[in-house]
Amino acid sequence: MSSIMPIALFALSEKLTAQEALSGIFGSISLATWIFLLVPQLLLNYKTGSADGISLVFLTVWLLGDATNLSGAIWADLVPTVIALAIYFCIADFVLISQCLYYKHRNFRERKPSVVSVGSEQEPLLTRRGSSDIGLPGSHRRRSSARSGFDRRDSMTKVLEDEEPGEDNAWVRNTLSILGVIAVGTAGWAIAWQAGVWLPTPEEGELPAASQDALGAKILGYTSAVCYLGARIPQIYKNFQEKSCEGLSLLFFLLSLMGNITYGASIICHSVQKDYLYTNLPWLIGSFGTIIEDLTIFVQFRMYSPKSTSAIDGE
Fold it and tell me: Which reaction does it catalyse (predicted)?
């Protein structure tokens, strides 16, 4: 490894400018981030056996944004790697939505019998109450509420044990995960550059006629940006309405933030010419515009953390 670094630095100084290298590195990190993006949320849903924390509207609009992004990439005849990544996005979105629908349907089916068996007018009163409840008004209500309270407490404990063994440990784990993704993206770019797979794109090269004339592709790009900007609003509202971020993976949104920052940085590092920025404006809006919304969700994670909830309950 130590012998590779001088060779890479020499190649960088001779064949590649720092601006081109940064553009490639940021782009590769963004690619690695998007590949691993949905894994934390998929694992959290699997561990808790629930998907109640994430908004299906959020995921559906996000899928619509990825679908229009794929359509625009195909229409504009972009490079195969961009099209392949857009296809991967759509497949990953579909997997997460399918998982959420499965858990919501399964949990609804499991809750339904307990609701039906709570009370029936034709069922004798003594059979609904245990023998120990006779002559104790309200004891059945207290027992059922206590039982449901224990169920909620057990589920909450399970979530906290899986997702938050300690706030400091969670942040350390998330930080290490992000650093790992950065390392993978950087190493991937270095290998691709040394192997000749990745080549810098000239700033003033002739654009293909398809990308010059495909107005529809640009419209799809702006539509995708609008979808990305609007997708998080239902999730932010859901968190605000429930005063909770339970069931959401913080690492999922951290990776989303890093992916958007590095993607926008890769475009800007490549060139700041007006025509180039105008061509990539839909993607810049879609990446940088969602940063504010991700930061809003981070604030909600802080405001609605279990620690502050337990403090309120203890008062």
Answer: L-histidine(out) + L-arginine(in) = L-histidine(in) + L-arginine(out)
Tally of domains within the chain = 1
Is 4 contained in some domain? Answer: no
Q: Kindly state whether residue 18 falls inside one of the protein's structural domains.
A: no
Q: What is the pTM of this model?
A: 0.72
277 part of a folded domain: yes
**Any domain includes 133:** no
Q: Which residue range(s) make up the domain with 55?
A: 26-111+150-200+209-314
Tokens of 148: 């449901």
* Residue pLDDT tens, the chain, 315 long: 444 444 444 445 457 788 888 888 998 998 899 999 999 999 999 999 999 999 999 999 999 999 998 888 788 776 666 778 888 889 999 999 999 999 999 988 887 665 445 555 555 544 444 444 444 444 443 344 444 444 444 544 444 444 444 566 777 888 899 999 999 999 988 898 887 767 666 555 444 444 444 677 788 888 988 999 999 999 999 999 999 999 999 999 999 999 999 988 888 888 888 887 887 788 788 888 899 999 999 999 999 987 644 443 444
